[in-house]
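Whether sequence alone determines local backbone shape is best considered at the level of individual chains. When preparing material for the folding task, we compiled for one chain both its residues and its backbone structure tokens. The sequence in question and its structure tokens are set out directly beneath this paragraph.
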Amino acid sequence: KYKVEEGKVIRTEPKAGSTKTAGSTITIVESTGKEYLLLEDYTGKNYYEIKTMLELKGISVEMKQKTVENTSEYKDKEDLIIDQEPKVKEGEETKLYAKDKVILYLPEVDVYPNMVEENWTLSDVQDLAKEYNLTLDIKYEERDNIEENIVLWQGREPGDPIYEGYTLKITISKKPEVKEPEEPTDPLLPGEENSDNSENTEANNE
């Protein structure tokens, strides 16, 4: 990285003031002008660390997402750089100067929607589970003011990455069970019990 004007001598080897015999080799290091940074292969590194390093050198950084086949491989690795532009070419040096742009790609991972606010049905959730090979852990809760089979709660926060093969807990609405009314028993009218007893007493006296 150089700041000396292009074409000017930065240093010599050996240093100035040294004594050399006739026929000795002297190396002259010439300035290339602007300060630059050699492009490296950033794949596999943390996006935010590389972004900070590049921007400190005045290089513009753009983040893009790239579709990945197996999202489960990127669990807890959402900030991992999986590709870049420009790419490092074998046997070549690419110099980055201030105001140059580098594009860094992160894995594009699908995320959970807000099933509650979007009024997802059990059928919607089952379709999602089938697509991502999720295991559903379903609980039901009685609600008399909500239609049946509506998502009341989801175990994964909206915006969380969807990883194949994971378990999704959800709570689904159902109507309260209708209890059969008990058949009422007719209470004895006043005097009926005494009337029966008096009839039995008269029969015994006879």
User: Anything to note?
Assistant: The two ends are 133 Å apart (CA to CA). The chain has three helices and ten strands.
